[in-house]
Amino acid sequence: GDSVTQMEGPVTLSEEAFLTINCTYTATGYPSLFWYVQYPGEGLQLLLKATKADDKGSNKGFEATYRKETTSFHLEKGSVQVSDSAVYFCALSDRQGAQKLVFGQGTRLTINP
Amino acid sequence: DTGVSQDPRHKITKRGQNVTFRCDPISEHNRLYWYRQTLGQGPEFLTYFQNEAQLEKSRLLSDRFSAERPKGSFSTLEIQRTEQGDSAMYLCASSFIPTTYEQYFGPGTRLTVT
What we know:
The structure holds two protein chains of two kinds.
Chain A: E1 3-6, E2 11-14, E3 19-21, E4 23-26, E5 32-38, E6 44-50, E7 56-59, E8 62-65, E9 75-77, E10 86-93, E11 101-103, E12 107-112
Parallel strand pairs in A: 2-12
Antiparallel strand pairs in A: 1-4, 3-9, 5-6, 5-10, 7-8, 8-9, 10-11, 10-12
Chain B: E1 5-7, E2 10-13, E3 19-24, E4 31-37, E5 44-50, E6 53-57, E7 65-68, E8 75-79, E9 88-96, E10 100-105, E11 109-113
Parallel strand pairs in B: 2-11
Antiparallel strand pairs in B: 1-3, 3-8, 4-5, 4-9, 5-6, 7-8, 9-10, 9-11
C-alpha cells in the first residue's frame, strides 16, 4: 500500500538556521502531497500542498517541491524562528476515491533562540 | 465558520466501558474522516463518510468500533468494551468534494483507558 517516510527526529536548530525535513513516498498512482504542522496543544493544520509533479507548495516561508523522479517532497525554510517549533507531518492522498491521508511518523522540530 | 469541533476533548474511562465521541464538521462539508493517532506516530485512517453514507472502513476499525453520520451533519464514533490499546487521540477532519480536497482537522479527543 501507499506509505510515507520522514527523516527521524527530533531536530533541534538555532534561530535563523536553514531547515530541511526529508520526506519520501511510495504510491501506486499520482498522489497529492501535503505538509501538516501540529503546534503544541493544537490540532493539525495544513501548511502547504502540491498536487502534481514539479509543483511547489509554499506558505509562511516554508517550501516543498513535488519530485516525481525521486518520489520526494522535502520541506525547507531558509531562516527558522522559535515560533516554528512544532511537529511536522508529511502526507499523501489519492486524487480519486476516498482521498484518505496517509501520514509519515512526524518530525519534532525545536528552535532555540 | 468555526472550524471542525470535537467533544469531549479528553476522556478517561475504565477498561470494558463504552465511550462515544462527537465531531461537528465545517458546515456544508460533505466529507467527514476519522483518524487515530498514537503517541509519536502520524494519524492513521479509520473511516470516512460522504454525506451520510459510510464508504470505507480501515481494518484498524474492529467490530468494537462503530461510526455514524445521521443526516450527513455531525458524526459519532463509539468504542464498545474499551481496551488499553484503544488509548489514543481520535481526530476528525472534513472536506468539500469536489471543490476543495483539503482536509480540515479538529482538535481531537484524547482517550485514556485505565
